[in-house]
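ugh ok fine here u go
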Amino acid sequence: MKFILQNTRFSILLFLLLTVFSFSLHAVDSLDSLPVKVVLFPFREAVLATQIEGTIISQEFRQGERFKKEDVLVKLDERKYRDELLKAEASVKEAELNIRFTEQKAQDNKRLYADGLQSDIEVKRSVFEADLAKIRLQGAMAALNDAKRNLAFCTVKAPFDGTVETLLARNFETVKGSQPILGIIDDTRLLAVMNLPTNKLASTRRGDKVTVRINETGGEVTGTVFEIAGRADHRSETFEIRVLLENRDHQMKAGMSGTLVKIGK
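structure:
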């Protein structure tokens, strides 16, 4: 009886070992046939911030609305910065007048010195004042350029075509310099991110055609390999690729998912 029981246990153990071994071989053989998950990301994204302190008077686009490059996204109250620009312009004019005055004075002193009617030290002083006036004009011009930039910063424009993802401030709020105002994404193109088995690394090239099926739409789209990860993941034995998909018709959205259909024609 004991001998039969031991044989039975041995048979069960052998059966389990063979089953695990067979499953492992099957898993290796079918690795390429496993579905490869795809997730869509924006081609690029940015969080826009103001570079000056000011009060928001309008936000031209709501969350989810699309815009074009150079469209005005946010306007700040610019009255303070217009006044600063006027002051800077006045300082430049004053500096220019001072240059003309000091240069004329230096020339007069040189003529008087030649006639023996002016001292050498006065000539040198007038030349120094003329040179100093030119330096002050440079400072006034720098302040003018700074005032022009600050006034321009009151208007936040779109750096690319895209969609407003999130609003980080509201109308009538006063924001500080470098404070984020809104997040935007470029979804006119999308990146389909997926992980392939490392045995595909040698045969995968930038520009290769890739077809994926989008779960939410049920349709298939084709793009090209845009980026290939510089390092493989040794734990999963996979490497990441990013496939560029055109999305001018906005049928797809960032965050959608899908599966890989094929690589190549």
